[in-house]
Amino acid sequence: MLRSLKWRFIFYAAITLFAIFLLLPTATTQLPAWWTKVLPTDKIRLGLDLQGGMYLILEVEAEKAVESYVERIKNNLRDDLKEKNVPFGKVEREGTDRIVLEVSGVKEKWESVLAQRYAVMRELSSSEQGGIWRLTLVLDSKEAEYTKKRAIDQALEVIRNRVDQFGVSEPEITLQGMDRILIQLPGIRDAQRAINLIGKTALLEFKLVDEEGDADNALKGTIPEGDIVLYQRSVDPATGGVRKIPHLLKEKTLMTGEVLKDARVSIDTQFNEPYVSLEFDEIGAKLFEQITGQNVKKRLAIILDDNVYSAPVIQERIAGGRAQITGRFDMKEAGDLAIVLRAGALPAPVKMIENRTVGPSLGQDSIRKGIISILVSAILVALFMLFYYRLSGVVADVALILNVLLILATLAIFRATLTLPGIAGLVLSIGMSVDANVLIHERIKEELRWGKTVRAAIDQGYHRAFSAIIDSNITTLIAGVILYQFGTGPVRGFAVTLCIGLLANLLTAVYVTRWMFDFITLKTNVQKLSI
Amino acid sequence: MELIRPDTRYDFIGKRKFALWLSLIAILLCVGSIFLHRGLRYGVDFAGGLLVQVKFSKAVDISEVRKAMDAMGMKDAVVQKFGGEDEFLIRVEKTSEDLEEASKKIQTSIKEQFKDQPPEIRRVEVVGPKVGKDLKEKALWAVGLSFLAILIYVAFRFHEFAFGLGGIAALFHDILITYGVISIFNIEYSLTLLAVILTIIGFSINDTIVIFDRVRENIKKMRKENLETIFNVSINETLGRTILTSGTVMMVVLILFFFGGPVIHDFAFTLAIGLISGTYSTIYIAGPVVLLWEKYVTGKRKRR
């Protein structure tokens, strides 16, 4: 018995030391250098509700990626048909993944064009009337799925890039479910700016202005075939009023931001206004040279997310692969624009479906109040136990302290997050820990009353109270695990601390206290237990 | 020290008829309130919508904030005080425009209109309707599943369906009372309150198990007594523990209520109600239900 007493002591002492050891990085920032090299430095991480920050869920509108893919195919198809001299009527995208086209002439000729280069488009239906074939093509469903998946992966990557460049410490960006991206940005100051930066599609496009058409006419309803109308926002510096200038553009995109190598903010020395200068990669530079060379004296519109930023006249062939985006930015706007351009465009627009932002001061308030309530309740409960159970109260209090220590250490080792409801979970664990001790102590008292010896009473007390303790802990644990499964964010934190607390409780309130009682009774041979 | 003398024999079970009526009336009030309010008042978490918590550097009259909301066309915005005189919650459930845009608009216009009391945006929550619906579904699953799991566990541990039923009846009672109080005090039902409900489920069943455990033990000991007496003795024997535990947990919850700050106010209040109901229902609901079941369904109890 004494031998096992010693081993039990060593075991519990080791656990306690290990817990303290795990908590050191959280408790102090001045760890010796040798420590940080080999030993764990994981701290308890504070949830966004305690340290302030943003919790965002974005939904990737992956359908739009399929749509633009089919749109691109359609544009290529039109060019191809023109090149191969196939007479065609309309070539249009219908819905997300269909193309409707009318062709005539030699059937084998257009059939070979379709078969060779557009195998991903399956023929859904075809009909002939007076030598004109009307075809409906649909994007292969596997290809559509693949496009969607790629768009989501890419969006995740792009958002990671942007956040990295924005400079947030320890951001967390993960995929949630099929098409949702969960973004956690702790300690962020300028929430609005972060949202703008993350949510912007940032699709940069270059399109030619349709010099023959007229934007005003087009607005009245007659948009020429293959043209679109996009707007340029223009702010009158005198009145601050916003005007929208329509531009009639060729629908075909000549170049996108994909070929960008770099984007940075520069200052226009003449007007002292910031602009974003672009540098293309090799392919981009060649393409840009070719486009500008072929279209001298025409206007080239620079478009970002369907907004025309400028449409300057191409004066001459531009070699060297440089361009710029101007448009009355302030420094911050220009800087953010450069970031999103550098990080690349999102393959599909994203929609913010959940946003929880907590300012840093509220977090500090909560943490202060949380710590106060933990301390006050722990002290009051401990005092009460001392007052009510005397020496046995000391036993219970040791278990209580060890319990809190173990919960915190587990949080640290698993890099779990402590949230405000998590603190509440901690406080409730204290309550459960007290309950276990009360159950045992009341039972021991009862056994003593029946005239049992101290040792027998302790034996029986633990034995009899155990079933109630295990049952109640397990049922609460069931509720906790289910809460963890279905909860999100802060509520999960509650479930985590509650579950850890219940498990730690079984160890501390049942086994550690038992060791203490055994130690007291075996070493001192007491005749009367102070309980 | 002794709180309850060992020979205490309050006749708890004898008052069960009175208690059942009391519970019935309380539950009717609660269900009635939920009906009258047409369900719970769902917070942003479940209903979707947006919430902005703003703290001004000086006290601001609430009507000023409301006026500012009206001026920017947010007629449906609900403004309420939060904590002191300088802090407010602005809530919008539905807007014709995008929620994220609306939240931006509110933030900028508040900053502009209260330049003299520079406001600080302390918290923003925007939950899309789809997410809200998801969360609502998950909440239902969470409560339902934990009920089921607990029923199975208790029935399994006590080898007796009646005990599982008694425990679940007490749970139902507590959940109904808690939801009723949430409705009567018009407390907003959010994810945090869901956590409270699940904690109450845990505590309520914990309490019930402690007494059932004693009953299980006493059935073997007191072979000659009827089940009614056994329940009564068991409740009395564990009364000291019930008062001590409920008392300490209640103390902790009250501390959370007074020191935890406004964010945790509703949390602590609802939990306190649930605790009271949980302690009461263990004595007056769980036991009597087992007795009723044994009397009318199982017939005369077979002694083991």
Secondary structure elements and pairings:
The complex is a heterodimer of chains A (531) and B (304).
Chain A: H1 2-27, H2 33-38, E1 45-46, H3 48-51, E2 53-60, H4 62-83, E3 88-94, E4 98-103, H5 107-117, E5 121-129, E6 132-139, H6 141-166, E7 172-176, E8 180-186, H7 191-199, E9 204-208, H8 215-219, E10 227-235, E11 242-250, E12 255-256, E13 260-268, E14 273-280, H9 282-294, E15 300-304, E16 307-310, E17 322-325, H10 331-343, E18 350-358, H11 360-389, H12 391-413, E19 417-418, H13 420-449, H14 454-486, H15 489-524
Parallel strand pairs in A: 1-19
Antiparallel strand pairs in A: 2-8, 2-18, 3-4, 4-6, 5-6, 7-8, 9-12, 9-15, 10-11, 13-14, 14-17, 15-16
Helix pairs in contact in A: 1-12, 1-15, 4-6, 6-10, 11-12, 11-13, 12-13, 12-15, 13-14, 13-15, 14-15
Chain B: H1 16-36, H2 44-47, E1 49-55, H3 62-71, E2 78-81, E3 87-92, H4 99-113, E4 120-127, H5 129-157, H6 161-184, H7 191-221, H8 227-237, H9 239-259, H10 265-296
Antiparallel strand pairs in B: 1-3, 1-4, 2-3
Helix pairs in contact in B: 1-6, 5-6, 5-7, 6-7, 6-10, 7-8, 7-10, 9-10
Question: What would a concise description of this structure say?
Answer:
Chain A is an alpha+beta fold. Chain A has helices at about 1-25, 35-40, 50, 60-85, 105-115, 140-165, 190-200, 215-220, 280-295, 330-345, 360-390, 390-415, 420-450, 455-485, 490-525, and strands spanning about 45, 55-60, 90-95, 100-105, 120-130, 130-140, 170-175, 180-185, 205-210, 225-235, 240-250, 255, 260-270, 275-280, 300-305, 305-310, 320-325, 350-360, 415-420. Chain A is elongated, with a radius of gyration of 35 Å.
Could you say which structural class the secondary elements and strand pairing of chain B correspond to? alpha+beta
Largest sheet of chain A: 4 strands, antiparallel
Rg of chain A: 35 Å
Major beta sheet, strand line-up of chain A: 7-8-2-18
Number of folding domains of chain B? 2
The portion of residues forming beta strands of chain B comes to 5-15%
Instruction: Report, as a whole number of angstroms, the end-to-end distance of chain A.
Output: 23 Å
Quantity of strands of chain A, as a count: 19
Using the 3D structure, state the CATH architecture of the largest domain in chain B: Up-down Bundle
Mean pLDDT of chain B: 86
- Unreliably modeled segments of chain B: none
CATH superfamily of the largest domain in chain A: Multidrug efflux transporter AcrB transmembrane domain
